[in-house]
Amino acid sequence: MGIKLFFIDLDNTLLNDKKEVSSYNKRIMIEILNHNHQIFLTSGRPNGFVENIRNQIDPRINIISYNGGYCENMVEHTLNFDEIKFIIDKLGDKLENYIIKTDSEIYASKHIVERFIFNVNKNTKAKCYEGFSVESLKDKKIFKFIGFYAKDNKVNLDCVVNTQKFIYFDYGIGFELLNKFADKGCAVKEIVKHLNKSITNCIFIGDNINDISMFELGGYNVVMDNAKDEIKKYANYVTKSNNEDGVAKFLEKMMEETYE
Question: 5-75+183-259 in CATH: which number?
Answer without folding.
Answer: 3.40.50.1000
